Amino acid sequence: MSLLEQYRSVRKASEAICRPLQKEDYVVQPIVDVSPPKWHLGHTTWFWETFILIPNQEGYRPCNPDYNYVFNSYYETIGARVVRTDRGNLSRPSVDEIYDYRKYVDAAMERFILAGPGKELEDLIVLGLNHEQQHQELLFTDIKYILGHNPLFPAWSDHDIDEDGAVVIAPQPGAGVTAAAAVRRATSDAGGYLSVPAGIYEIGYGGDGFCFDNELARHKVYLGDFRIAAEPVTNEEYLEFIEDGGYRNFSYWHAEGWDWVKTNLITSPLYWHFIDGRWFHYTLAGLKPLDSQQLLCHVSYYEAVAFAAWKGRRLPTEWEWEAASGEFNWGKRWEWTESAYLPYPGFKKAGGAIGEYNGKFMVSQMVLRGASVATPAGHSRDTYRNFFHPYLRWQFTGIRLAI
Questions:
Q1: Taking CA 161 as the corner, what is the angle to CA 327 and CA 137, rounded to the nearest 5 degrees?
Q2: pTM of the predicted model, to two decimals?
Q3: Residue 13 burial (CB count, 10 A)
Q4: For helices 37-48 and 3-18, what crossing angle results, to 10°?
Q5: Whole-angstrom distance, CA of residue 382 vs CA of residue 370
């Protein structure tokens, strides 16, 4: 697929995600971590205008000079911006104006790509495509939070969701797709765990395609013998934790996690509802009876650690997860690890605003590995490092245990 075809495909995918929405849905921001859908559409357009067109296209005139203030996310190098908590207060620009903005920038970007931007700028365009795909996953998770906290529990769509909650309209990752060499020495036991031998393993991206800077540089780590679950935790397994008083027993929780439970009155995963003696959960297809065999979803790191302690297990480190990833199925849930989000040895930030992309967030966050049912194709690789604060659970997060 040519670069122009890739650009068109990615831009169309963002709009397809929003197509089932009512216009009122585009503006809502229930919490700071959720951005209104129309802001995502504007921000991903601002990226192309700010990093490609304005500095590199002679004679280019910005669609609206004020959009730099409205749609800058966190780039201090670029200048002042709307405070993140205020994105939901932006009744203007309107939804129609944002779609006009996308058309204006797309026309200019297509001319720019057809003119042949050169290798350095082509690489920057590829980064921009991956950036917009990250926002496509965020669009799904943010839309689910917006609609899932509406007391009417409206469906995003009733025909674009499969039985596992997968988003059919989005390019789906292949379970177990790996970029690095698989272990191939792991053996499974009767308890559903894979035994991985001690040894030196290479961690980090080592291919020729695109990766984010936080996946570099590839390096060796020594791992002792460990065992890791062949499958993620299911709803049925987690229900046992709830019914055994898991949310009422402080001994399973980190102190910070226990404070989070008490302060926020947490008693179950996000989107779970106990109604008339039955468990239900909100999906993008609306409120549905909880499927006990479905993979657990929407839990925080705090909950993941507490469940593991209740089971007499632990979470894998991100290096253990990557070393064993060729031996188990993954790709439907982002999986919490026991690793803090830190730079790899030899990590280097790029210069300028692009250098703010990942490195500035390497503090107070935990690493998740794998992918989710909302992850665009190409982001499902075993070296991909997602990262969130430990209390967050609006993403499609799950649990895989280790011993």
A1: 65
A2: 0.92
A3: 17
A4: 160
A5: 6
First to last CA, the chain: 43
E-strand ranges in 180-250 read 187-188, 193-196, 199-203, 219-223, 226-229
What 3-state class would DSSP assign to 53?
helix
CATH code at position 312: 3.90.1580
Buried b vs exposed e over 309-331: b needs ≥16 C-beta within 10 Å?
bbbebbbbbbbbbbbbbbbbebb
Condensed to tens digits (0 to 9), the pLDDT of residues 78-107 reads 888 899 899 999 999 999 999 999 999 999
Domain assignment of residue 166, given as a range: 157-403
Q: Which residue, 117, 148, 179, sits at the end of a domain?
A: 148
- Cβ 363 vs Cβ 383: under 8 Å: no
Q: Which of 92, 114, 148 is the last residue of a domain?
A: 148
Residues 249-308: tens digit of each pLDDT: 999 999 999 999 999 999 999 999 999 999 999 999 999 999 999 999 999 999 999 999
d(CA 202, CA 187): 20
Q: How many CB atoms lie within 10 A of CB 130?
A: 16
Query: What angle (nearest 5°) sits at the alpha carbon of residue 146, between those of residues 271 and 302?
Result: 45
Residues 6+ apart with CB under 8 A from 187: 194, 195
